[in-house]
Amino acid sequence: MFTCDTGGELNKVAHFYSYESMAHREEVRSAAARNQAWSAYVDIGRKFMVKQESRIMLENQVIYSATGAPGAASFAPPSGGDGPGLYEWRQYQLSPGYGSVPKLLKAFEEGLPDKIAADPEGRLVALAHSDVGILNNVMELWRYPSAAACIRARQAARQVPKWRETIAAVTPGVQTFTTSFMVPCPFSPWQ
């Protein structure tokens, strides 16, 4: 669970959940509905809610294989006292149609390893595309020790020829691109 520090809607809370399957999702949600503490939390939270959005995202294992990233379910923030860190949530809204997501993912499969090699501080947490909700949406979630480290990573990535080629290849199919700095809530396991 995160709050938005900057780069988008402020006073927003984002929850990320990982499920093994749709059946597992239903099982967890059913158990939560029976949990009195969760029901009380939801009832209190509704008073403050202006808008709620939900989508189901599918992680891309090919990207994880190419980059060595563990994926969201296996991610653990580094130990060593760099604090809660900062997460950069990058979202791409792609053109309608069946080909835009596969094209972006293929380009990322080829370009992300070089981008990651140029960035010793950042860690790819998740890369996923929407399956339910706003379609043709791709998200990346990165962890950095600080906002300054995120900016250094961006500057380094701009100098990587393969990453520049990747961005040039996918940009024509991107309708919008947003990036937000997210701070993990004090009780988040991703502190």
TrEMBL record:
<dbReference type="InterPro" id="IPR051557">
    <property type="entry name" value="NipSnap_domain"/>
</dbReference>
<dbReference type="GO" id="GO:0000423">
    <property type="term" value="P:mitophagy"/>
</dbReference>
<feature type="domain" description="NIPSNAP">
    <location>
        <begin position="2"/>
        <end position="58"/>
    </location>
</feature>
<dbReference type="Pfam" id="PF07978">
    <property type="entry name" value="NIPSNAP"/>
</dbReference>
<protein>
    <recommendedName>
        <fullName>NIPSNAP domain-containing protein</fullName>
    </recommendedName>
</protein>
<dbReference type="InterPro" id="IPR011008">
    <property type="entry name" value="Dimeric_a/b-barrel"/>
</dbReference>
<dbReference type="GO" id="GO:0005739">
    <property type="term" value="C:mitochondrion"/>
</dbReference>
<comment type="similarity">
    <text>Belongs to the NipSnap family.</text>
</comment>
<feature type="domain" description="NIPSNAP">
    <location>
        <begin position="87"/>
        <end position="189"/>
    </location>
</feature>
<dbReference type="InterPro" id="IPR012577">
    <property type="entry name" value="NIPSNAP"/>
</dbReference>
